[in-house]
Amino acid sequence: MSCVFFRRGFCSRVLHPETRRLGIVYVHWPYCSQICAYCNFNKYLYARKKVDDNQITKVFTKQLQSMMKRSCISKVASVYFGGGTPSLADPSLVEEVLNVVAKVSSVAKEMEVTLEANPTSTHLDKLKDFKTAGVNRLSLGVQSLQDDALQLMNRNHTAKEALCVLAQANELFPKKTNIDMIFARPGQTCLDWEKELEEVLQHCGHHLSLYQLTIEPGTPFSKAVKRGEMKLPSNEAIADMYEHSVKALNNVGLRRYEISNFAKDGAESKQNLAYWTGIDYIGIGPGAHSRFLESNASHFIHAVNELEPNSWMNEVWTSKNHGMRLVKLLSQQESGCFRIIYKIWEAIYPASVTPLNKIFSVSDPTLQYLCDNDLLIINERCLKATDKGLNLADSIASELFEVFSRNMNYQFQSH
To answer: Is the pLDDT of residue 353 over 50?
Structure first.
């Protein structure tokens, strides 16, 4: 979850669709060569004989064309290929998707095209082809530099292999290679993590993503925890790991710009920033999410695609909803509440009418408590979490949602 941060100007974007025309695209490739023990994403085992690359590429591009037409998006700033393991796909998928983007919209200057990849020698052979197809940023799922941890998580690479791929990726995508790491793993101590992070920083370039392990229902890890076979670090140890990480990364110039993401200035992920600043996004592929202003400019749409790949493909070809399984039309008020999840609020009223600290008054007991305990800052310009508050961002966001909803209801009832 990102840092909690609100600014003024929201309603002007709802009421004036011409300001909503910049967007991003997420492409969900649902297949993996093996399933990680902690993962509950929408993923399926990849069997090359059963997956028709040409057919699935046609479905991706058809859904993209249909949804772009349904939205107000006229310029694309970023395209992100995630999954799953999209580096399993044929590089032609990237090329075809980018061709459609160029046909149905204008392309932002220096548009970012990101590919998630596993750091295996098999995938390394294809990285040059992906770069030729249009990828200009890479996100490597290293996850750990400890072989026993990688085996426990059911990763399909070793630490040595990951470092080899990372070195070559940095040459192919200089200053544009991200490393994903997982901390708070079973049996991990603070000292273990500090040593591992120190090694990571010897190889990290300009961007690092740190994810705390969460035990998701239905995963092998969840079952092992329930059986008492797996011991996780204490909450105190996890907090210490994260606080150490923030300090260590800051010391080498990697600034925290979102709870899990750290970057040197100018190396932030455009896709990440777009989500947290409320830019419209279109998700194509099984289970992908979308939120955009519809082309008639009457309301926002929040949609989730059909989950299962074959059902999704059939829906794209036959359904008037273009493969979207759940579609919700968001009213102006709902859209405002929805945006709190992305930590940005650009004001219900123009800045000249109502300062933010008049709407979110510190007289509210919840806000007063958060401010008094150095967890939150509120002034005319913004409401944001302190460094201390960022460590409790999930809890603070939940509290702020309730405050936001109360104030939204009051403001709409008063007008």
So the answer is: no
